[in-house]
Amino acid sequence: MSEEYLYAYGVIENEELGIDIEGVEGATRAYTVDHRTLSAITSDIHTMDPEETEENVRAHDEVLQTVMFWDEGRTVVPMQFGMTFKNERPLKNVLRGGRRAFTQALREMDGMVEFGVKLIVDEETTIDRDAVRESTTNRLATVSEQEAQNDLFSDRLVVNRSYLVNRNERSAFDSAVDTITDEYSDSVTVQYTGPWAPYNFVDIEISSQ
C-alpha cells in the first residue's frame, strides 16, 4: 500500500467538517485537521508532489468553493495549489506558526468571495480602450470591496481584474457585470468567473513539509 500524505486546500475557523467530494489527485473526501481556533481543509493523497494539471487545479478550486457554500457557508483563507504535508504534525505546526496571520485574514475576509472579470476586444474591432477600462473599473469599484490588477497578457485584453465582493452584495455585482456586458456587446467579450476563494487578497507565505 502506498503511503498517504495530507493535501491542504485552505483554512477556516475551527469546525469539524467532512465532505465527500472529488479532490486533488483523485481524493474522494475533504475533512478538517484542527489546531486551536483554526481548521485546515485537507484530503489524503499518495504523493508529496501533486501535478499541477487542469484537473487537479479545478479540483482544488471546487473543494474550496464547496466548503465556502456548504450548509450556511463560511469564510475560507485559501492555500496555493500544491501544499502537501507528510502528516498532521507539520500541518499543525503551520497552523500554530501562522495562527495570527490566518486569524487576521479570516477576520478581514469574513463573508467575502472573489470574482474575476476580463474584457476582451473582439477581433477587427476598434474601441476607445481607455474609456472602456475607466468606465468598467469605476462601475465595478462601487459594488466591490477591493480589486486587484492582473496581467494584460494579450493585446486584446482591456480589463483583467479580480474583485473582492461581500457575498451579500453578489447580486449587485452580477447586475453591474450584466450592464457592462450589454453595453459593449457589439465590440467586447466579457468573461466573468467565480465565486472563488479570495486568492488575490490574502498574502500568507507558507511551505509544505
TrEMBL record:
Single GO cellular component term: gas vesicle
Residues forming coiled coils: none
Pfam family, one: GvpL_GvpF
Biological process terms in GO annotation: gas vesicle organization
Subcellular location: Gas vesicle
Keywords: Gas vesicle
Family: Belongs to the gas vesicle GvpF/GvpL family.
Protein name listed in UniProt: GvpL/GvpF family gas vesicle protein
Origin organism lineage: Archaea, Methanobacteriati, Methanobacteriota, Stenosarchaea group, Halobacteria
